[in-house]
Amino acid sequence: MIGLFWAIVGRDLRLALRHGADTMGAILFFIVTATLFPLALGPSPELLRHMAPGIIWVCALLAALLPLDRLFGAELEDGSLDQLLLLGVPAALVALAKITAHWLTTGIPLLLAAVPLATMLGLPASALPVLLAGLFLGSVVLSLIGGMGASIVLGARRGGVLLPLLTLPLATPALIFGAAAIDAASTGLPWQPDLELLAAFVAGALPLCPLAAGAGLRAAAE
Amino acid sequence: MLLTGPNGAGKSTLLRVLAGLRKPDSGQLLWHGESVFADRALHASQVAYLGHQDALKPGLTVTENLALFARAGQGDMQAALEAMDLLPLANLPARLLSAGQKRRTALARVLLANAPLWLLDEPSLGLDANAITLLGHALAAHRQQGGLVIATTHVPLPLTNVQPLALPGAGDSAADTFYQQEEDA
């Protein structure tokens, strides 16, 4: 069963490689939106440094949403969803495998892209490890909640519009703690409590979101 | 068993129910005396389902498309490709295949599932005469080993000694009741 889990992940990674433009789209969106802020807010280093955590987190949140409607949508359209559900593994495991693939193809590249962006916005180097640790946990949360949202709106008309409305409010705790941790680190305050709360959020979402997503997939296949 | 009936009679829906993908509106579905919906994953490993759609990813090659399912059913990829005459196409991306070749790939996936129950929704759709013969061989071999086949069709399939089941059309009273239930649900 674990072998099949990784086989689904591997298949999705291969698909992501073959459709490189779709995969890179989210990352480029992240970089472009984040670079718009200095242009809109003016070049004051003090202001940008102050706003950097929020800018990076909000842009990462929105960028992670982009590939979500295709995550299960493409499978439903070409009939692959039926075949995935008939693999003989629980639907929740199929959902978790797809969510893992989403994290590997969107979350990890977002992490990497966040480093040059943070430097560009003038975030002190001492805050970078906290930024990465926070985004690491945060991107896991985004993939889990996003995957759950994507499976729930699957098959609905205008699902692409519903998805952010459903997902973004649920992801706000991650945004609050993630951005607060960076803020604390750059001003020298203790940042551990924020990251611990974020980790607790991951621990809660990890078992629950795949279950909900699996139920969503079953409902969509009916 | 061969399911026939006019368009909209519910043939495909019945197959999806049998596969455990859809819950029946009423009644129970039993497999070896156990309810299918008690453990759908277990039932899924007993079933090979071929839907209307071929469920192939255009960016992946024939072998890559099938690899996941070969792993799930512990099927022999080489034998399945050979049975459907796909060996020369094995490394072609699925987007380059014709409709009949895609159907053959989807049929190869059914072979790879190594499941006792085959549920085939119009398996001969888009196949040429040669491929229909291959399909006939595959069906015969599966039945020889004690496997079950339930197929829907509008055209004669290369099968002998089959049990036909004709579903009533949408104009018949039974189907009217069915649609009534659908609307109620």
From TrEMBL, chain A:
GO terms for molecular function: heme transmembrane transporter activity. One of its GO terms (cellular component) is plasma membrane. It comes from the Bacteria. Keywords: Cell inner membrane, Cell membrane, Cytochrome c-type biogenesis, Membrane, Transmembrane, Transmembrane helix, Transport. It is a multi-pass membrane protein. The chain crosses the membrane at residues 21-42, 54-72, 84-105, 125-154, 161-182, 197-217. GO terms for biological process: cytochrome c biosynthetic process; cytochrome complex assembly. Its main location: membrane. It is found in: Cell inner membrane. The keyword Cell inner membrane applies. Pfam families: CcmB (PF03379). InterPro entries: Cyt_c_biogenesis_CcmB, Cyt_c_CcmB_bac. Required for the export of heme to the periplasm for the biogenesis of c-type cytochromes. Belongs to the CcmB/CycW/HelB family. This is Heme exporter protein B. The gene is ccmB.
